[in-house]
Amino acid sequence: MKSRIAAVQYKLRYIQDWAGFEAQVNFVLNAAADYEPHFVLLPEIFTTQILSFMDNDQIASAVRELSGYTERYTDLLRKHAMKHGYFLIGGSHPNLRDGKLYNTAFLFTPDGEIHTQDKIHRTRWEKEKWNTDHGDGLKVFETPFGKIAILICYDIEFPELARRVAEEGAEIVFVPSCTDDRQGFLRVRYCCHARAIENQIYVAMTSTVGNLPVAGLRLHYGQASIITPSDFPFARDGIAAEGRINEEQIVVADVDLALLDENRLKGTTIPLLDKRTEFYGLRPEKLTIR
Length: 290
Known about the structure:
Blueprint: E1 2-12, H1 18-33, E2 39-41, H2 59-66, H3 70-84, E3 87-97, E4 100-108, E5 114-118, H4 124-128, E6 141-143, E7 146-150, H5 159-167, E8 172-177, H6 182-199, E9 202-211, E10 219-220, E11 225-227, E12 239-242, E13 249-256, H7 257-266, H8 271-274
Parallel strand pairs: 1-2, 1-9, 2-3, 7-8, 8-9
Antiparallel strand pairs: 1-13, 3-4, 4-5, 6-7, 9-10, 9-11, 11-12
Helix pairs in contact: 1-3, 5-6
């Protein structure tokens, strides 16, 4: 079975009001629908664009105020998923629940359901400036077009998370991301390649691009890509598709899920099957060499 993925490089720019945000979201999601994808991916915290017209320069309180737009945001994206019939990974959005602030990815289904995945590992900025809380749950979603999981940006840098969802059957891991410089972007990008190779899965990532007149979010460096295992049945360099760095665009590729099953059994290497699970509980020997 083949699944088509559309990853949106969302350009952050100053907007004057909610109508400006809604107009840009409508444009990119309608444009993505033209490619008839099964999945559409938006970047991490792309809704921070709303901060550009909010009159609050106190970072921690502003992001909590942004959570007040959650209902408008979910209503807007839910309508697109239902209208176009795709599964929409709506990037992520600050989500205040029971007095705690989470960086939450929202998954919108064609039937109108809304599912969530909280970010599990927080960056220093999120801990020290935004005062967010970490998520504690990890989910695998079974869809008609493959089993999927969502690891938000920094979470892809922890191999254990991708391995856990792969062992639970995930075939595509979606990575909404937001990075301000090349080093940060490459940390995420290189880890996406590693996770695809280690677990013989597809990884789709995308990033915010552009700039905002908002503290900590002024500059963005990003690129969308759809990454494959590195073996003969797949793209030569392990990249099914990628965008142009720091440009506004949509990247589209078809991924063949049947190739994953074949590669996990007959690949040049089969790391998912070859993992020696009995070994990983052992502690390494400590030797003193004089």
